[in-house]
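Duplicate of #3305? Posting structure anyway:
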């Protein structure tokens, strides 16, 4: 399996932080997913684009909770060996992201203003696997990551400065990109010709589910019907708080010893 790019998190932001699930940065390598399954997902996404996609934030058109609209996506989420392989790459056990509204998305990016390309930001979800479904006549569109502190870079963007020292990773059909981009400033390189359609499958740490930057206000801005709130609170009660308290107890015991 060919690896096209590998950067660890410390290399990207210049330091190791507590708020990370591991030192995973970005890994792009060939995948073994069924191309016919990917084609079915792509065709269904194109067919429902006008009906269910939205362009709300960051110059990005996307379908939220894409697996609800396209059930075949769940075949990829639980594709044989997928979670084990991604966990090995991340050097920590991963699980699918539990909130349906953000667990999977289909993104449409292109040269037309109707689609656009996502602006500078940091992810709320801990880890994303980006699987290109279609790339057509594309100029631009690479994943660009600012190598440095997120706050420093964001202040430069807001001041109108051009960011230097970027990692640029073109997307490839037949390869997926696994990335931990919480508090890592990144964007899609502006697209001047063509378009691409990608499936984003989000994940988190099984053992540290509380390491997550998806704030409730951001979820509400994207999903103002608040149908996700009960699911969110159930996860906090049943998974995040117990895991956090267990980590705190373990840390206190370790310090005492």
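Output from current build:
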């Amino acid at each position: 399996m060919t690896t096209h790019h590998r950067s660890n998190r410390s290399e990207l932001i210049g330091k190791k932080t507590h708020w990370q699930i591991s030192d995973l940065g970005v890994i792009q390598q060939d995948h073994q997913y069924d191309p016919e399954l990917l084609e079915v997902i792509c065709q269904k996404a194109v067919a429902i684009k006008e009906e269910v996609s939205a362009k709300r934030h960051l110059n990005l058109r996307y379908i939220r909770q894409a697996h609800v609209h396209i059930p075949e996506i769940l075949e990829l989420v639980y594709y044989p060996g997928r979670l084990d392989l991604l966990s090995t790459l991340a050097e920590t056990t991963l699980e699918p992201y539990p909130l349906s509204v953000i667990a999977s998305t289909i993104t449409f990016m292109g040269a037309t203003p109707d689609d656009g390309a996502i602006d500078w930001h940091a992810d709320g979800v801990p880890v994303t696997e980006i699987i290109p479904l279609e790339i057509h006549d594309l100029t631009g569109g690479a994943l660009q990551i600012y190598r440095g502190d997120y706050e420093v870079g964001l202040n430069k963007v807001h001041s109108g400065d051009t960011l230097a020292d970027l990692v640029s990773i073109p997307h490839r059909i037949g390869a997926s990109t696994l990335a931990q981009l919480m508090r890592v400033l990144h964007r899609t390189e502006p697209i001047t010709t063509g378009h691409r359609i990608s499936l984003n499958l989000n994940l988190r740490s099984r053992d540290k589910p509380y390491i997550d930057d998806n704030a409730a206000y951001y979820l509400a801005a994207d999903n103002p019907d608040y149908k996700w709130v009960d699911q969110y609170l159930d996860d906090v009660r049943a998974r995040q708080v117990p895991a956090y308290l267990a980590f705190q107890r373990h840390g206190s015991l370790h310090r005492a010893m």
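Confirmed duplicate; merging threads. The first helix runs from residue 9 to 13. The two ends are 43 Å apart (CA to CA).
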